[in-house]
Write a structure and sequence with these properties.
The chain contains 5 helices and 9 strands. The strands form 2 sheets. Strands 5-4-1-6-8-7-9 form a 7-stranded mixed beta sheet. A two-stranded antiparallel sheet has the order 2-3. The chain has a single domain, classed as Spore Coat Polysaccharide Biosynthesis Protein SpsA, Chain A (Alpha-Beta Complex), CATH 3.90.550. Helix content is about 25%, strand content about 25%. It holds the Pfam family NTP_transf_3.
Length: about 180
């Protein structure tokens, strides 16, 4: 099944001391490029955030207003592409792979009654920004919230019927420097 990718990379990286988290290097590859590698099979990829140097060509956009949060980023990213499935990932998922993304898309295509299929982190926490969504469902959820600025991802998407993987390292995100040492 064809899919588009929306990569959220516009956060302030406050817990990283203001360092651009997307450009932090792990094992020789930036966190952003690691996510872009995982989503390389997308028909189109848009990164929501400041333009940076990446290993492959992508479209770039920013939420309006800038620094409006992840729901505003999703709204901006959904303006790109037309595939019926949208894989949404934040740039701080260094252990996600192409296989993980394929699993999400295939699981969604086989599940008639769900709006999205997402990863759980190793601790079992649902990662709303590591999931494949039906474009129509995601678009409608964001439309219902009205102004997407500073809205909660969980509250915005709470009305969607979602399924989740078993806990996996692929869903582990990196919020602090210490998280880079804990795969």
């Amino acid at each position: 099944m064809e899919f588009d990718a929306v990569v959220l990379a516009g956060g302030g990286s406050v817990r990283f001391g203001g360092v651009d988290k997307a450009m932090v290097v792990l094992e020789g590859v930036s966190l952003l490029d690691r996510v872009l590698t995982a989503t390389a099979d997308a028909v189109s990829t848009v990164v929501v955030g400041a333009v940076r140097t990446t290993y492959r060509e992508v479209a770039w956009t920013v939420e309006e207003p800038p620094a409006g949060g992840p729901v505003a980023g999703l709204a901006a990213g959904l303006a790109y592409g037309v595939a019926p499935v949208v894989v949404v990932v934040s740039c701080d998922l260094p252990w996600i792979t192409r296989t993980d993304v394929t699993t999400l898309v295939e699981a969604l295509s086989q599940a008639d009654r769900v709006d999205g299929y997402g990863l759980r982190d190793a601790g079992g926490r649902e990662q709303w920004l590591a999931a494949a969504y039906r474009r129509a469902s995601l678009t409608e959820a964001i439309r219902r919230v009205g102004d997407p600025r500073d809205k909660s991802v969980r509250r915005t998407l709470a009305g969607l019927e979602l399924a989740w993987t078993a806990p996996t390292q692929a869903g582990n995100d990196v919020d602090t420097w210490a998280d880079l040492d804990a795969p």
